[in-house]
């Protein structure tokens, strides 16, 4: 059965929860259920027996070995077909999406997001912060250096006038000896047309530099306005998501059904599947805040704290033993409980403001 197809795992009362094959594999922990020839090396009989055991464990109907063989052939054909279609799409000049033109943008270009990555990839090796590698005394990562007058050299950047900027003249030049950027061997490596367009538009807008984001005080940006909102955006974050989707020529997917929604959010916040009773309660809750109530309930559970704390424990290399030499035990479990309690909203005894978080 191809991954992603919904299964229906029922309980004793007949109600059930839709799961994907991947969810079911992770939930029941049945080993060796992969189809032979698709990344595993188990004998066909072994895989068929594992699949039958998986069906028994999950409440699915059993299938005969002949049916298992037929399904394997179908899956193999679908995999080859998908790989072939993907290869054809990769060979297309621009794929299935087209980047929007700069003329159609409604916002000014941002130096850190739009311009600096191009300069870093194309120019900084010769005109960046390294004084040993810098050529012609031109440094493009700082405004005061990029616009500094250099005796015997034209102005690299003239804010508001790309046609007078030597940077634009060089990257648009047709002369291979004059064209920039160039390799260390003096071979011209022309920029892409969209990169040139970004730099030209940025200079036309005034060539505004910005420091690294870590040195700027956080500021709440204005909400973008999407052309095809239609009431889809429910929160400020939705407005940013929809604006970026429009930029990529994408459209929002239809809202998932309630059993799928509660499965997703419960797995994400707790690492566990919701119970059938929780699915029924959410499906029967017709209030506008039904989803918010589910999320608030999950955030208040100790298991949410366990799920969140394990990431930081991995970063801190938490372990109950030393792991080397004699592998002696060490009593640091209070730190584990401290993290779990700190991550759980309802823990009042050891809850701290985030400014005093152990992860800061």
Helix and strand element order = EEHHHHHHHHHHHHHH
Class by alpha and beta content: mainly alpha
Instruction: Count all strands and give the number.
Output: 2
Largest sheet: 2 strands, antiparallel
Mean pLDDT: 76
**What portion of residues belong to β-strands?**
under 5%
Low-confidence stretches: 1-48, 87-101, 346-350
Instruction: Give the C-alpha Rg.
Output: 29 Å
How many structural domains in the coordinates?
A: 4
Spatial order of the strands forming the largest sheet: 1-2
How much helicity do the residues have?
40-55%
Report the principal-axis shape.
extended
Distance between the ends: 45 Å
- Can you count the helices? 14
Task: Report on this structure.
β1 and β2 form a beta hairpin. This protein is mainly α and 360 residues long. The relative contact order is 0.06. It is extended, with a radius of gyration of 29 Å. A two-stranded antiparallel sheet has the order 1-2. α10 crosses α11, α10 packs parallel to α12 and α13 crosses α14. 44% of the residues lie in helices and 2% in strands. The two termini are 45 Å apart. It has 4 domains: 85 residues, no CATH class; 110 residues, no CATH class; 31 residues, no CATH class; 99 residues, no CATH class.
Summary keywords:
disordered N terminus, 14 helices, mainly alpha, extended, two-stranded antiparallel ribbon, 360 residues, 4 domains
Summarize the structure.
By secondary structure, the chain is an all-alpha fold. It contains 14 helices and 2 strands; from the N terminus they run ββαααααααααααααα.
């Amino acid at each position: 059965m191809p991954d992603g197809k919904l299964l229906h795992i029922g309980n004793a009362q007949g109600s059930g929860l839709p799961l994907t094959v991947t969810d079911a594999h992770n939930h029941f922990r049945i080993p060796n259920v992969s189809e032979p020839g698709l990344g595993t090396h188990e004998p066909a009989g072994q895989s068929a027996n594992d699949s039958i055991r998986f069906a028994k464990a999950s409440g699915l109907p059993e299938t005969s070995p002949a049916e298992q063989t037929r399904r394997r052939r179908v899956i193999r054909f679908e995999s080859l077909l998908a790989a072939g279609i993907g290869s054809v799409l990769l060979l297309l000049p621009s794929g299935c999406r087209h980047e929007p033109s700069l003329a159609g943008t409604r916002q000014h270009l941002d130096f850190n997001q739009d311009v600096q990555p191009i300069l870093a990839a194309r120019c900084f090796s010769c005109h960046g912060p390294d004084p040993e590698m810098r050529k012609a005394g031109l440094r493009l990562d700082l405004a005061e250096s990029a616009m500094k007058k250099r005796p015997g050299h034209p102005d690299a950047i003239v804010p508001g006038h790309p046609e007078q900027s030597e940077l634009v003249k060089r990257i648009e030049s047709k002369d291979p000896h004059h064209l920039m950027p160039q390799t260390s061997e003096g071979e011209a490596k022309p920029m892409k047309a969209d990169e040139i367009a970004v730099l030209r538009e940025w200079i036309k807008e005034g060539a505004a530099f910005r420091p690294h984001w870590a040195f700027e005080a956080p500021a709440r940006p204005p909400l973008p306005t999407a052309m095809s909102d239609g009431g889809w955006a429910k929160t400020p974050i939705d407005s940013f998501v929809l604006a970026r989707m429009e930029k990529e020529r994408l459209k929002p997917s239809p809202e998932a059904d309630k059993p799928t929604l509660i499965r997703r959010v419960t797995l994400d916040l707790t690492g566990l599947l919701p119970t059938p009773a929780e699915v029924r309660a959410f499906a029967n809750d017709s209030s506008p805040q039904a989803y918010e109530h589910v999320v608030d309930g999950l955030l208040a559970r100790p298991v949410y704290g366990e799920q969140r704390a394990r990431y930081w424990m991995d970063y801190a290399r938490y372990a109950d033993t030393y792991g080397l030499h004699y592998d002696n035990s060490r009593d640091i479990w209070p730190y584990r409980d401290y993290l779990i309690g700190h991550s759980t909203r309802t823990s009042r005894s050891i809850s701290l403001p985030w400014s005093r978080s152990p992860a800061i």
